[in-house]
Fold:
Amino acid sequence: MTTSLPLDGIRVLDVSSFIAAPAAAVVLGDYGADVIKVEPPGEGDPHRGNINLTSFPKAEVNYPWHLDARNKRSVALDLKHPEGRAALDRLIDTADVLITNYPFPVRTRLRLGYEDVAARNPRLIYASFSGYGEQGPDKDQPGYDANAFFARSGLLDATHFEGQPPGFALPAQGDRSAAMALLSAILIAIIDRGRTGKGTWVASNLLANGLWSNGVYAQAALVGAYLPNRPPRDRPRSALANIYLTSDDRWLQINVTNETRDWPAILETIERPDLAADPRFTERKERHAHAAALREILDGIVRTRPFAHWNRLLKARGVPHSIINRLQDIPADTQAVAARAVVETDTPGMPQTLAAPFQIGHASPRRPGPGPALGQHTDVILREAGLSENEIAALRASGAAA
Structure:
């Protein structure tokens, strides 16, 4: 591993709130970028308080904030104050990337549109994130991942069981995958700037990412193809792509797509070679037509042994399967650690955290540290931007900085 990181020397202004856009900035920081979190004085980014929401599990440590603000530096500026907005201009002069997800009308009021900042720094890469996109009748509609990513894209409709209402998404599921799209656009723009010497704007949004995530069904809909809602577990479309309860009350997921290869392996695993001659199950078409009957047989067999038994046999035969982990199982998942999806941190009270969902062979990402206190680095960041001690004191005295 090299001691320098791929994004060393890149300065990022994170002028955003909540999760999707800040999460993209986190990964830039993981790989060496100097990420400056620009927050309003007072409460700062509202995400600092999201741990108090009823949908977030409670803990002694503010884990949502540390996950989405690790290794950033915080400067507290009131961008509605003329002097605070002028101080941001000084930061823009030194930046390579500016990320914002402020609503478009707010960007207009704060002079935070692409044209505003590009006039100041033509090499700047301006990364815009929104709920529903840059144009269209709903571009100003408030968009969170629950409504823009999951609901509007058809994901909630496509995944609910027939006869039941649509389900719901867990906090920030769409935000984090959408963050990787914004990250990709930023990195492409950095490469392009290396060729042209010029900055540009890039954009992503929750709706587009929800549709991309739901690509198979969304593309099918675009050509007029649809499936009825998912049938319940006892009437699966395929008994070989279903879940089964083991004797130790764990759910075993089987996900067979190559039935020619895996059906004989399953028969060997469950010690039922006789089913190969059962006319209901001899071919894929018949197995699907009699999926409920096959499910009943598999139910009765799988529940006689613990998950470890089935895991050993199915793994030996290469049959795609998994335990359905409970959230409380994640800390003990040694594979997640081995795959570097879960890593150690320097954050007090938070020994492990989630890494960016990719790796770079020659560079190990920065070890995660805590998210900053509000305005923790205001003075040093403003000094780096060229402000004098008197100017910084004046900003504080006016309430434009904290």
